[in-house]
Fold these 2 entries.
Entry 1:
Amino acid sequence: MYRFAAVARHNAVLFAREPGPAIGRIVMPLVFVSLLRPLYQAAQGRAAGTTQAVAGTLVLFSLLGMSLVGWAIVTERGWRTLDRLRATPARTIELVAGKAVPVIVLLLAQQAVLIGYAVAVLGLRPANYAMLALAVLGWAVALLGMGSAIGALARSHSELSLVVDTGSVVLGGLAGAMVPLSTMPGWARAAAPASPGYWAMQSISGALDGDTGTALRAIGVLLAIGIAAGAIAAARIARGWRRGHPL
Amino acid sequence: MLVAEGLVKRYGETTALTGFDLTVAPGEIVGLIGHNGAGKTTFVEVVAGLVRPDAGRVTVAGLPPGRAARRRLGVAPQDIALYHSATVRQNLRLFGALAGLRGRALSTSIDEVAEALDLTGLLDRAVGVLSGGQQRRTQAATALLHRPAVLLLDEPTAGADPTTRRALLEVVRQRAADGTAICYTTHYLPELEDLGATIAVARNGRVVARGDRDTLLAGLPGEVLVEFRDGPPQRIATTDPAATLADVLATGRTPVAVDIRRPDLDALYAALEVS
């Protein structure tokens, strides 16, 4: 347990020493949702417009938040510290969990700040807070898994940025995070379930609107995505990176 | 102690280890030398548990690779592997804690190792702003904190300045005197002479020669350098300096200076190149 705690504390220190990206990922959605909410309200009405603005902004910017996870892994590969950690007596689970906890906290904080702001300032009234918390947690697990997989497979920081930035906009757009799904063309609506962001929108909108069945089903899909992506990342990280490998 | 027997490791069509045998007894320093690609670093990775061998076995303090073995092992990899945005102290705290140290024992150990490696004044500075030699010392410190029974130091002085080199060699000598089994890979052969290390020569993935310095150098040519008043100096490779000098004198020329050089580890390297 103390090894897990040591890794978690150390990774929290690493984030704290370079807080810029995390602060940016938390502040930007607040600006975005404040500016765009009137547009959504004009198009969809007061309540539905606020829900769309908050859920969409949350999904889009938390997808971009995957870069925090991936960047941390790619950076450690560059520093060669992952192999150095594997040479210590720590169990793999202690290393993985210790690294995951600060990241999960960060991803949750990003979402919690946005939702808190929407409730306090924008008048959002979630129908089911417990379900909303579950939805946010399920989405954070999916983001952690996907971010880890991208970080483990990317060959450079540049490639990571390309995949996360472009992928976030594509997956967020396909999920209906920027434009309501109902206004998108048929082919986009048919392809939407292929985007993890779609299930995040379903779970969060379901929780905000009180549609428990939809929210639970979507949370199940998000957890499955997180576990599958996490397994890919773990398998790649366990193989290590030989000397001379890119990074 | 460290025991490796018949280690084989293949990467695709490349065989990095081809039957690597090496033992290091408690208190012994074994200097592992060999050209790039000889298998030194792969051997270190196998012992550290980072790479699984295709054949052969390795034990650390009698234990097969695994968590229990890693508790008794200190590893300083060839490449700097530190958190650059964290301070020296934060790096040492992490690796010390992962090695099993806690509380006062961890703090005391950090202070002792920092003192020995001249890092005390750098403890609260970020690793990323340190010089290469300071980073090299920090890296070595992460391996020493828990006083492991076996130390694997993979080119610990590569690119280091003389101060760093002296500090590291002194710590290595002290740890060996305390009973630690030390495997020390290097290209700097004089370091091994300074340490009085047993020398193991790796070539093509296996150890091809092992012994103390004098045993390994026996039969290798030294040099006789003769300077004359009336002509250029002569540099003659020889295994019998007395006979060579007699031959020079028999020519009737009068030397003004004679320098007899015994074979050194560079000569051993050169001999391996030829063979």
Entry 2:
Amino acid sequence: MIPARPDLARLRADRRTKLAAAVDRKDAAAAVLLGTTNVRWATGARVVAADQARSARRRNVAIVVAGDAVPHLWTHHRDGVPADHPDDHVHDGLDLESDTGAGELVVAVESLVGRRQARVFLDEWTMPLRRAWSARLDGLVVEDAAVHLMGEVKLVKTDDELACIRAAQQLNEVAAADVHEALRPGLRQCDLSGLFLRRVFELGAHQNTVDPIWQVMPASVAAGPASVTGDVVFPLVTTDRVLARGDVVWVDTGITLDGYDSDFGRTWIVGADPARAQYDQFRRWKDVVDAVLAITKPGVTGGDLCRAAIAAAGGDRRPWLPHLYLAHGIGVDSAEAPFIGTDLGDAFDDSIVLAPNMVFVLEPIAWADGTGGYRGEEIVAVTADGYELLSNFHYRPYER
Amino acid sequence: MSAPRRQRVLDAMAAAGLDAVVLGREANARYVSGARRLWLAGARAFAPSCVLTSGGDVHLLSASDDGVPADIPFAHLYPITWNPSKLTARLATIPGLARAHTIGVDALTPTMSTLLSLTFPSADLADAQALLLAARRVKSAEEVDTMRAAVAIAAAALDDVIAAAVPGARECDLLGRFAQQACERGTTTPAFEGRFGSVFPSDRALVAGERVVFDVGVLVDGYEGGLARTIVCGDGGGVVAPADAAFEEVLARVGPGVPCADVARFADGVGLGAEPLSVAGGDDVLVEGMTLSVRVEVEEWVRRDQVLVTARGAELLLGP
């Protein structure tokens, strides 16, 4: 049962327990986490949202040591540390882009783990960290924390996590509804971004997570930007392009609230109702969504979902962007495991078995030249005997 | 703008003996390629998204030619893949990479370290991040102009916000107002989500007489423009801020040849986002053409501005 509001203290405690258990189970001495979202998941601590360069220099770092469920946290943002994180596990932030900061972290790893042969999980290296690490910690066997640790602990959500995702999505949807109301010919793409961002911050979003996308779809694949895969190109970066009546706009936005991401996707038409052929695109998309949802429940595989989607689209093509996926997970990352329908192949998809409290964003597309196609996203939480939608947004102007 | 930047990197690669660089950091990829790609918040793990060979060929992760400069051939674009073996197979087709003895990378993950070593078994992996940061350090006139444009947008947007920072205004509304102002001025990408009173702006309402710090930054074509100002809420902005005198004082200490260590207390590097002040360790000095973010704080009054290091000293990037 998803609570109406998440209990954030309980959520953090549950995550810590899960992570500590995984470190123990895998017989590792520690997990050293640098990645923005991995540290966020492990500690609940906030950082100021920023571009990649600043985020890298002012990142939070977490170390989980076997036998101690509370992560050590190095942070430049004391204001962002949850009040229940013990003071003796909070340290001044490190700049891992510098030899000095990297050296300090290596000393900290050594003092927490000891000078011994041991297995340690690590998600990424800055070049100074790699240098300092190989000079001093050559007794440690490093395994990729992103691949072998964080993916599996993030995969099945707690009810509080589902409540967080739903709350983030609801906030995003309120802002998106306001943008949709304002949509009209003569506005620029960047004006839509401005309206959207203003609303999400007014509504209390903790950060914006992706430069909002309002892609005007080309009349045909051939008329669009040259496509490396031959398929319709998406997403394109927002510019000051002026919107014209009849433009078909694929919308994709994402914000973060209490550490969890939203993912909003819909197709809008500027100042016009859909023509019959355009409405048919929406129907084709909706048929795929409905077919996937109809079989969604524990025990069903990612491969089953793909086959249901393909059958609903007529059986001759994969109704999603082939370089992306039919569905992806969501949590502290806007796209995380499970990834379903990727180029990893059918056997990989068949190896993904749905379980209660897994969550995925279903994002098929429909495309026919001359219509602008249809793309939308629905967030689906797997329940004990079926599913529950965490997204809830209208399909205007395709459906009233 | 990208051709001379790329040449700087090629010169640095030749001097350091690198046959190719494989870049994952967006600022580096942008410097080398000039490509405009999707802005995402946060530090992402390393993935090969831009390759530069010593022969000058750029190969780029991109699903289309949108935002890709015309001097990068379409055949040099490669799409995203979830399959590591497809990625490494694609990288192995790049002639300058396949034959390389030394490949520079700007970051790594344990998995990518293994994959690159398996794909290019005779190549050593070297530090390309230090090399790129050194190459990026001195800005061209065009780069400086882009930063001036970014600073101008940030300053105009902040002026609008300060006018609205009246008693009762909520911090999160001011953050939202700034974001909208920046977008309407044509840039949708922040350098960071700014400080509007609190470092993490909340729904707290400003009260008359309180000191409010604003610190903001936007990106234009990847280049950062930002500033910080402090006001007293509701006083009409007539007060001379105590930080201004201190700011003038430290500004006078900036100039070519000044040891970085002497200005590190109040200055940091800035360019394609945050950059380090020093790239060569302890005895590094400021040089003409560097761009800095200069920040002073006096009794919780904060002032920050971006400056260009010129032969005569420090020049504010914010116009009059």
